[in-house]
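Course assignment 3, question 2. Fill in each field.
Student: A.L.
Task: Predict the tertiary structure for the chain below.
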Amino acid sequence: MKLEDLGFSAWFQEHNDSELLKSTQTARVISVSRNQYMINNEIGEIPAEVTGKLMFNAESALDYPTVGDWVYAEYFDDNTFAVIQKLYPRKAVLKRKTPGKKVDFQLIAANIDVALIMQSLDHNYNLPRLERYLVMINEAGIEPLVLLSKLDLISTDELNEKLTEVRQRTGRKKIIPFSTINGIGLNEIKGSLEPCKTYCLLGSSGVGKSTLLNSLIGENILKTRSVRESDSHGRHTTSGRQMLFLENRSMIIDTPGMRELGNFDIETGLSQTFSEIDEIARQCKFSNCTHEHEKGCAVQKALKDETISRDRYRNFIKMKKEAAYYEMSYLEKRQRDKNFGKMVKNVMKNNKNKS
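Answer field:
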């Protein structure tokens, strides 16, 4: 397998460190589970870890490798183990807020060409959540493609109604409804996957991501679990993030189901996902308008005139407030970490001088 088959394009060739390549090899991270990495290049798949220097210099979770990253790796023991020295620049990166109370970034995947957003046509169908995925994807500058699973559960009229809703809320023309039970839509999905391109499959637990991947790959390499009848929700089947290779030489990154999808640092993602609101907001009287109660707010006027969707407005304001809160908390955390790091380095320097 050549690097080009793994997605190594001209963009990465233009951004390589020729000096570092004298002592390392280029490889791609194909799976991450906690702090354990698997990388792949023309030699094959082997386990890897990051250097102590990379860990010491890392200022946040964004500085660590994630699935899809291209890295400079030094190989040892007859190419059976490697140490990751440095990351290539990222062409794109998917990230979200870490689940729970901690305010930090969690890396999902890097260097993605197309993000596949998957929702099922049952209790999991949730338009505000779909918009959250789109904000994250648009912020990364990645092309989205919406997949609607479990087509066999609804009638044709119900499907047409939901397709209209999704198109109105997302502005996406290409949406693929499908069923792994009767096979409808699977060929269209396969036809959308191009050789040497990297895709990332996103969705909540229970939407059928593992079942779809097994259908695309042609064998049951991923575990699937039964879905609870009470709420149509499944349990987490995928525990880590991993890259899978299809027969047509395309690659799909499988991710665990996301129960939480908090976003911050998403100014571009919000403006692109809610472009109609963003365009009207430029007409507001005040540049710092919150679009909630100010006089001269063009967004409030558009709501009264019903020229924008109230549901989309609510989700826009909710995510905007969340992002502002998380960003403030994150900046405070970064400052505390920076001060602590300075203290540690000063202590180490003083100890070295004493010795």
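Instructor remarks: DSSP finds ten helices and 13 strands in the chain. The two ends are 51 Å apart (CA to CA).
Grade: pending
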